[in-house]
Amino acid sequence: MEMGCVWMRRMYSGGAISALPVKASYSIPSSSLLPFLRHMSPVGFSLPSRLPLSTAACSSSVAVVPDDEDSSPLSSSFSSSRYGSYESSRISIKKSKVLLKEMRYPELEKWVELQGFRPGQAMMLWKRLYGNNVWAHCADELEGLNKDFKRMLSEHAEFKALSLKDIRTAADGTRKILFSLGDGLVIETVIIPCDRGRNTVCVSSQVGCAMNCQFCYTGRMGLTRHLTAAEIVEQAVFARRLFSDEVGSISNVVFMGMGEPLHNIENVIKAADIMVHEQGLHFSPRKVTVSTSGLVPQLKRFLQESNCALAVSLNATTDEVRNWIMPINRKYKLDLLLQTLREELPRKNNYIVLFEYVMLAGVNDSLEDAKRLISLVQGIPCKINLISFNPHSGSQFQPTPEEKIIEFRNILAEGGCTVFLRLSRGDDQMAACGQLGKPGPVPAPLLRVPRQFQMALNASSS
Ligand code: SF4
């Protein structure tokens, strides 16, 4: 759910805006290990750019970021020994190997016991995978563990689900990381350093996205497949491993990279559970934010099963506009979405939802929109983030001028809303909100512009 991305400077209301192809060798595992090996399914067919909104895993052999990405030089920050060894790394998942990061702790403990080792060894392994500044990527990095246990892990377990492909550093310090997956597809993760110590990693949950939000570059890709829990978790592990020395502790995770997280809810909830485990990565649940375009049944399930934070990408105050710029609204209308939040949030303790609102010139930024927004969020414990739109190639929208964003913000604040402004981060490296990924030769279609907005789009682009 990319448009909620926070590689933007956050300002509280009251001031002006200051501002390689990888081939894995797969085999059919024993049935007891199947849950941990789902990602290994052989693939070999292409999917249409728009898929039904099921949560079933899907896959494709199509590489969505072409290999010309390989020609881009690695940035200077990519030379330290800590990650130099990954420069030409490949994931090689051997026959019958279990992927460790696909397991929650109780599953890992059970697997370790099945291999004939004590549960205590499982905890020692967990801490070295996720904690204690180790973030181990191979058995050799498991200092202090018993030799036989390490040998068993070398033979039967796989530590890595991702292979580092490139790191690009934007002028403002934002880093975009490209990872290759086991089937050769490429995903993007963003690190957003913050001088107040609130460093954030923005993770992807899918390769591409099926939602086709009209203002989003990732949406033009269509959906290729869901990421596994291991592929999601490892983005956060890599972020800490690569950048903790450089930028300090990475304390926040936002599921706002490529994909609609709740379309992949099973793996997203599992990945979030692993991220907040106290003996491991130990992110605070309130600092792990899952963003959605508004898949109502999955949103309900998420609120019931997870303690992590929720962001809803709203971006419009009428069904007419939202049906156009976020086609998911044709299935789950604004009223239903907001009523669901009104009913579900009080069941949770002290829980606030974050509404994301991307400001599109002449489309959703009128003073009437501001007034409607105030009444739409009535009765919902919430904060609102106003986001400056990041243009990309092929985009038909323009950003709302700064003064108008401030005026919009002031109306919301006067109406009693808690409202923030966020400016773009990392846009010179296409790392900003709504800019991740790369559409293929046949991008998802742009939808017909409602007649009353055609003039506004023309005027804002001239
Ligand atoms: S198209 Fe997908 S990634 Fe882009 S904003 Fe919509 S839900 Fe998020």
Automatic annotation (TrEMBL):
Keyword entries, A-Z: 4Fe-4S, Cytoplasm, Iron, Iron-sulfur, Metal-binding, Methyltransferase, rRNA processing, S-adenosyl-L-methionine, Transferase
Keyword Metal-binding: yes
Gene Ontology BP annotations: rRNA base methylation; tRNA methylation
Classification via InterPro entries: Aldolase_TIM, Methyltransferase_A, RNA_MTrfase_RlmN, rRNA_lsu_MTrfase_RlmN/Cfr, rSAM, rSAM_sf
Requisite cofactors: [4Fe-4S] cluster
Predominant cellular place of this UniProt entry's protein: cytoplasm
Coiled-coil residues: none
Compartments (UniProt record): Cytoplasm
Annotated Gene Ontology cellular component terms: cytoplasm
Domain annotation Radical SAM core: ranges: 195-428
Entry annotated with the keyword Cell inner membrane: no
Gene3D superfamilies for this protein: Aldolase class I
Domain of life: Eukaryota
GO molecular function: 4 iron, 4 sulfur cluster binding; metal ion binding; RNA methyltransferase activity
A Pfam family per the record: Radical_SAM
Protein name stated in the entry: Radical SAM core domain-containing protein
Provenance organism: Trapa incisa
Lineage: Eukaryota, Viridiplantae, Streptophyta, Embryophyta, Tracheophyta
